[in-house]
């Protein structure tokens, strides 16, 4: 019988501890809880998934990093790495407790051909809406391939910024303040296109490219 690898025990203990944390938070009374959860299959997905946190930050959401000391902002989000294949128990604990922990929407991103995190999260967290982000083009079929009765909304590969806007749209149906922020952000981006168009016309193509 082979000896147990101490590193494996440490990893298992860390996963078990985080699972326990999720279940404890599901039982605890708190005045404020995160509105949106962002999960990804690996920290290597962060360059793609960062767009989700950027969009929420543009909408004046704040990120919760300590449940006992939450930000003062009205709208907040949290971020975790939750692998469907390497830590299925952690994925299950996160999704199973999502509604009880106060999450209204989850954004889930995963890469590879077997990008199962968004699908499984949507199935377990139901009826909490889940917006899937295929991290790569080859992940699209896996992310959108949910059977009838187990819905998952999804954006195109890499479009985590759009996923966060969609999450905010869900919340905005009940929060006029957030609806106004969405409209303002949309108008800012619209005006930005007009500004770029005018600069291109007035500077000409070489001048525009040189201006950066």
UniProtKB/TrEMBL annotation:
Pfam families: AIRC
UniProt keyword list: Coiled coil, Isomerase, Purine biosynthesis
UniProt binding sites for substrate: 42, 45, 86
Catalytic reaction list: 5-carboxyamino-1-(5-phospho-D-ribosyl)imidazole + H(+) = 5-amino-1-(5-phospho-D-ribosyl)imidazole-4-carboxylate
Region annotation Disordered: where it falls in the sequence: 25-49
Coiled coil: 161-188
UniProt domain PurE: residue ranges: 34-193
Biased composition (Basic and acidic residues): 25-34
EC class: isomerase
SMART domains, A to Z: AIRC
Domain of life where this protein originates: Archaea
EC nos: 5.4.99.18
BP term (GO), one: 'de novo' IMP biosynthetic process
MF term (GO), any: 5-(carboxyamino)imidazole ribonucleotide mutase activity
Pathway: Purine metabolism; IMP biosynthesis via de novo pathway; 5-amino-1-(5-phospho-D-ribosyl)imidazole-4-carboxylate from 5-amino-1-(5-phospho-D-ribosyl)imidazole (N5-CAIR route): step 2/2
Cited function: Catalyzes the conversion of N5-carboxyaminoimidazole ribonucleotide (N5-CAIR) to 4-carboxy-5-aminoimidazole ribonucleotide (CAIR).
NCBIfam families on file: purE (TIGR01162)
Family: Belongs to the AIR carboxylase family. Class I subfamily.
Protein name, as recorded: N5-carboxyaminoimidazole ribonucleotide mutase
Biological source species: Halarchaeum salinum
Source species taxonomy: Archaea, Methanobacteriati, Methanobacteriota, Stenosarchaea group, Halobacteria
């Amino acid at each position: 019988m082979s000896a147990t690898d101490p590193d494996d025990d440490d990893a298992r203990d860390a996963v078990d501890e985080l699972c326990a944390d999720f279940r404890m938070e599901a039982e605890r009374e708190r005045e404020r809880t995160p509105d949106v959860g962002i999960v990804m299959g690996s920290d290597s997905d962060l360059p793609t998934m960062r767009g989700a946190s950027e969009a929420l930050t543009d909408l004046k959401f704040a990120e919760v990093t300590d449940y006992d000391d939450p930000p003062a902002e009205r709208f907040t989000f949290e971020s975790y790495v939750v692998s469907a294949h390497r830590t299925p128990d952690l994925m299950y604990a996160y999704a199973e407790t999502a509604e009880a922990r106060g999450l209204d929407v989850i954004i889930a991103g995963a890469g590879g051909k077997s990008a199962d995190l968004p699908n499984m999260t949507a199935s377990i967290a139901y009826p909490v809406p889940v917006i899937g982000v295929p991290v790569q083009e080859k992940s699209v079929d896996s992310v959108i391939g949910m059977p009838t009765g187990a819905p998952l909304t999804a954006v195109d590969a890499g479009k985590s910024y759009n996923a966060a806007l969609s999450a905010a749209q869900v919340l905005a149906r009940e929060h006029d303040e957030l609806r106004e922020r969405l409209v303002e952000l949309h108008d800012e981006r619209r005006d930005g296109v007009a500004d770029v168009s005018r600069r291109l016309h007035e500077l000409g193509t070489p001048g525009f490219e040189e201006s950066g």
